[in-house]
Amino acid sequence: MEVKKPLLEMIDISKSFPGVKALQNVNLKAYGGEVLALLGENGAGKSTLMKILSGVYKKDEGKVLIDGNEVNIGGIKDAENLGISIIHQELSLLSNLKIYENIFLGNEKYNGALRKLDKKYMKEKSKELLSKIGFNIKPDTLVKDLNVGEMQMIEIIKAISKDSKIIIMDEPTTALTDVETEKLFEVIERLKSQGIAIIYISHRMDEIFKICDRVTVLRDGKYIGDAIVKEVTKDDLISMMVGRKLEEQFPYRKEKEGEVLLKVENLCYKGKVKNVSFHVKEGEILGVAGLMGSGRTEAAKTIFGEYKKSSGDIYIEGKKVNIKSPKDAIDNGIAYLSEDRKKEGLVLNMSVRENMSICNLKKYENSLKRINRVQELEEVNTYIKKLSVKTPSPAQIIKNLSGGNQQKAIIAKWIMISPKVLIIDEPTKGIDVGAKKEIYEVLNELKKMGKAIIMISSDMPEILGVSDRVIVMSEGKISGELSREEATQENIMKYAVNMNN
After folding, report:
1. Which helix (H) or strand (E) segment is 88 a member of?
2. DSSP per position, 402-460
3. What is the phi/psi pair of residue 180, to 5°?
């Protein structure tokens, strides 16, 4: 019987950055016609390994083999010439260009001696590629007119257009609807049938078991092991990733609820938020569910003063407040952790310390209005430890941390201002299972302290596992409210698609 040879081998790959050993003798094999899941907590080394494969970083040690031949990947173009493409979690499309222009960007087609752009060919080829994945849209559509899910599909088509034989997908479904996700899975099956190797990075375990054939697990920059997906359980993989058993994924704790801290009445914003009314009490997590475009984030940003309300009233501890800006919201004890943390939550070139303490500097002022750096650093270190933020030191530039550790630093930033009400939008988006549990524990501690928490989430198990009560939004309105006992996936979806109206 012929033994199948790997299309890709990465052998004893090591990579260091100042103060950090990112990878230590890591191994990976990928076969043509399979989907390989690459798993690990944030900071495990997944992104670093894939950046080496795609030519963004150069390895310090180790070998890369393609079809059994050792190759030297000195840059992104080298990787592309070897048939390696990466679809990043953060989209890299140019919004002012058309779809076909983005697909052929850097790989434009010309005709004639004058090397005139062959727009006809590029449009026709783009149409063919779009049709290939069942995406019915005109190639000369401007990218800025697409939604995020459609943009993700264009990124996939770009990879397909380069005749790639190894395609890396980094959290490809993060911004996709359920329908778009199913379409992506269909595309992946087609790519498998063509002998393409797909390396699939995701924190969504259900996806791993649905579409992946094998799994490679990294932890703390080291290779932990491989497994056949159909031969392992979710708990097995979690144990490999975090080095311990997670007996309870959602550590829910019921706290004694106090008075109403925040009440919203008939809140409206530009037709996107329509007569929204709800309340949240001390010691309570109010889950906010709904499909993409339901108005959840718009409602949160209106309460926080980022969007100016058209009408409606906001009350804090029974007192009507006039919130015209985020500063007004913060002054009234409201904190908002945005879904788009890199754009709205971080100053990427500043340190971990500076990012975590930036909203709280007045607290550290002495009588001379100077910052007491000892006090500031002491509190920063406390929260680095409490939230298990993996960083060499508080002085590390925050853009050098993994995505999950950046997110935990932002959560710490808002907790440090001691808000009465914390609105947290997609708290664990892109975060690994180990870090998720740590964040849920933090939310439980805040409940115990009597804080009121509004948690917006697209992760149904998270909504069901963490919330004390759930409101569901649809088309800018609250379509239903459910107690913890009433909240089931079926009941939430009925309200999300307005089946009860």
Report:
1. none
2. -HHHHHHHHHHHHHTT--SEEEEESTTTT--HHHHHHHHHHHHHHHHTT-EEEEE-S-H
3. -65, -35
**Pairing label, strands 284-290, 452-456:** parallel
Exposure class string for 34-53: b at 16+ Cβ within 10 A, else e: bbbbbbbbbbbbbbbbbbbb
Which two tokens mark 274? 């329509």
Q: b/e string for 141-177 if b means 16 or more Cβ within 10 A?
A: eebeebeebbbbbbbbbbbbbbebbbbbbbbbbbbbb
pLDDT digits (tens, 9 = 90+) for 128-187: 888 877 777 899 999 888 877 788 788 888 887 877 899 999 888 876 777 778 888 988
pTM for the predicted model, two decimal places: 0.60
Q: Could you give the CA distance from residue 154 to residue 87 in angstroms, rounded to a whole number?
A: 10
Calpha distance 463→469 (Å, rounded): 9
Paired tokens of 238? 């979690």
pLDDT at 113: 67
Q: What is the pLDDT of residues 89-133, one digit of tens each?
A: 667 788 889 999 998 888 788 887 667 888 898 999 988 888 877
Residue 363 has pLDDT above 60, yes or no: yes
Q: Report the distance separating Cα 407 and Cα 391, nearest Å.
A: 13
- SS3 label, residue 351: strand
Q: How far apart are the first and last CA of the chain?
A: 61
